[in-house]
Amino acid sequence: MAHTTEQTRLTILCITQDVALSGLVTAILSSQAEFKLVSAGGFEAALDRLRQGADVVLVDAAMLPDDTLLRDFKTKAGSTPVIVLLGRHEGIAAEPAFEHDANGVVRRDSVAADLRPTIQHTLTRRGLVDSVADHIAGVAQVSAPAGEAADDTRMVALQSSLAVEQLAPVLGLDGPSLADRPHAAALDQRKFLRGLTLSSDVPLNGGSHVYRSACALNCGAHFCGLSATVRDGHIVKIEAAPFPDARYQRVCLKGISQVQMAAHADRLMTPLRRTGPRGSGTFEPVSWDEALDAIVARMGALSAEFGPESLMFFTGSGQITALNCFNGVYQRLASLLGTSASDATQFGLDSAVPSGIEDTFGTDSGYLANSYSDLPNSRLVLLWGTNPVYSRMNWWPFFADAQNGGTRLVAIDPRYSATANKSDEWLPIQPGTDLYLALGLLREIITRGWIDHDFVTRHTVAPLLVRLDDGCYLRTGAGQFAVWDTARGQVCAPEQAEAPMLDGMVMIRNVACRPAYALLRDMAEPYTLDVVASQTGLSAERIAALAHDYATTKPARIYTLYGVDRWHHGATFGRLIATLAALTGNIGVPGGGAGVDGFCDGASFITSFPTPDGKHYLPVNPAALPAQILSEQPNPIKMVWVAFSNWLNQWPDQTRMRSEIIPKLDLLVVTDTFLTETARWADYVLPAANIFEREDMVKGPDPYVQHQPAFMTPPGECRSDFDIARAVAERFGLGRWFAEDPSTYLAQILSEQPGGSDLSFETLRREGVLLRPLSDAYRVAHVDRQFATPTGRAEFYVERLVPFHRALPDYEPPIEAGHDNKLRKRFPLVCITQHGLYRVHSTFVNAPWLREMEQEPHALLNPSEAAARQVEDDDLVRVFNERGYVVVRTHLDDSVPPGTVYFTQGWQPDDFIAGHPQTLTHDHAHPHNVYGPNSSFSDVLVQIVKEQAHGAL
Length: 953
Hints:
By secondary structure, the chain is an alpha/beta fold. It has four domains: 6-126, Response regulator (Rossmann fold, 3-Layer(aba) Sandwich); 272-344 and 604-771, Rossmann fold (3-Layer(aba) Sandwich), CATH 3.40.50.740; 352-596, Dimethylsulfoxide Reductase, domain 2 (3-Layer(aba) Sandwich), CATH 3.40.228.10; 822-949, Barwin-like endoglucanases, CATH 2.40.40.20. An eight-stranded mixed beta sheet has the order 10-9-26-25-24-11-12-23. A hairpin with a 2-residue loop joins β7 and β8 (234-240). α1 packs across α5. The relative contact order is 0.11.
């Protein structure tokens, strides 16, 4: 480096308490005229010195107990390069650890030779980054706004701010000029991705502050920690926030895209009142007082005429927090008013499989399973009807870690999904035949004697006697359940039997009785390997091998999400996988289990906040809500207030919803951040604050609790849902129930959690994340082998279902998409909706970065089905049935099985050329699920024709 003046000398800040190291660095740098060395004895002093300016920071590794402190300091230091000085006391392993978070690492024994070159290298890299940032900022001045592609004619030449040749020495390139290289001509014409378009309102330089928050979207309760950088009142960057356990430090494209959603040009900014017909999307802005006064007046009139139950608060899972969420402020308001409201235990979506598990393992068990962190303890995991690489992407590393440790992953899915691609084996089952496969496995395990006899006799209903006259369990005179003890030849209580009978029949008080296990064995008998093979499309050999592997590999786990749940028989599937796990002794053990997701307690807070003073709203299952609106039974529903949900877009039978259901309502209110499809049909739309603009907290991921501070001011007239509910309560004279600040209620909710007495809300606010004081046992569901069922055992024979002839989990056909349905002659394709990478349901459908990745919806079709219809890739097609249609472009995909068409759900109607996939779905729901009716989105048949040839349909 050339000699420099005092004004241009580079300031090197050294953080150390080691006098010898400080002297060594001083000796090395003082001889270099271009450097000015200053010292700090700690990180707080260093941050104060950084505000005065420093070009490079040197940090003594002895002051870093781990890389967490370094990462935190790096965040606060902004773009200033940090170099770690390693001494002899740090092992060789420390070097890559610090390199991950530092801009450079220099060992103490080579500091004389390496320090100056390392400083030069970091400054060169910083110069390159600053130059590119300045260039992008210049491009942004003339490019399109975020969400639109920049036009070539408006682009400035790249060399106007950063000549291509200038990059050569920085990147170490030599030879011919870069301008002569093959790709050079494309540089001037390159169109920037709209996701890279910056807002010219936000300067790249200037002071910034980093706030810790957490995502709260319904994408698997990972609730990624978010570090949001705020500069000049704008969120300019979102990164993964640190955790005490680095396995949880993750973020996805959706979380990062919150930076765009917070400042999106389409955000609702003021209350709106409908002026045109419902669905026209024509509104006028009104004040909050005008909107709330009118809404409350209408609510009062409807309550007086039809009863408070006629008012329905419909909250969805768009936010899963403590207050501003699907089980928070609006449920509290509903309880105080005595109105109807949606309830987490009767949600109408994603509840069929949990219903079956709850029937088997007992109350509050439907959504419980061994934690994701327990996966490495499994030797075999069946990934059945699930694609966690897409729908649980931030949990997928736990699967990968398990696989790297020797766990075998087997994907059972009609489609060759991303998860199937990463698994050790893929079983391409025919859509809707999962029950056949489960029953075939059950029969093979029973026939081969591969059951865990001790677990089966002690912890399941297998030995309990069932009366053949009424189908109920036999009870003794004391009302106890009974077994037949073959050792003593008499009936007795289960715990008294020396050798409980599992087969045969006995007469008790002139009533024929059989053990439940014998009834299960007989039920499974027809499902031979050949029968199951003919139905599922899998070979008999593969089915037999899967049964053997699952029964004899210990421990083994069945992991599912909601693929099978969206069929009419989802609850029966839940019962069957729970039964398979119980028969093989894979319950209550590390590495075992059968269930949805990976949580031993729910993602929602257990709290009295929604039901103050014992008051409780009237639960209404949203899947049954349309029918109740039409029939007015058991009571009329005249108002629906929608929050955290896009009801019209995400629920089935959209045609009927528009033509019959919504017209029956006297009042439809929507609270949201954008004008969703549901909001377009509302009478009043109220603008909500986002997660950065109101205070709340989330329960997760896994053992953690995270705080969501309100570090941004809500734009325009946006308000938090807490404030909206409080304003309504005040107008009804109930303001005292919302009189405290959110932090007071959050502290109360935290104290009500298991181990809550050991958690400080003030500490949570200060630290941003707290580890809940839970024992290791919480990672394993049912570890105590206690089941909250009527028998106290795992029940594959359910007495509750005797009147419906469903006591045993026997085969149950699809409601529409079965093989033998005559409707298949007209509509031969099964229509399946799947989760996408770039949305959480319909959230982020308008995120510019994500729209660049997936610009429009497609009908995914196997090439063989396309050829039969003379359809080519990217053709316009009409997908239709008797209920509705959608016009969309095709995408031919070999991973999609013949006989099906796939849609990625969450697109709005405006995204389609015409129609919508939800017009194809029906609202037929299973009436006997313990969690109530559940929507069967995938149990649907359709036909496809080329659009220009469809004629009149």
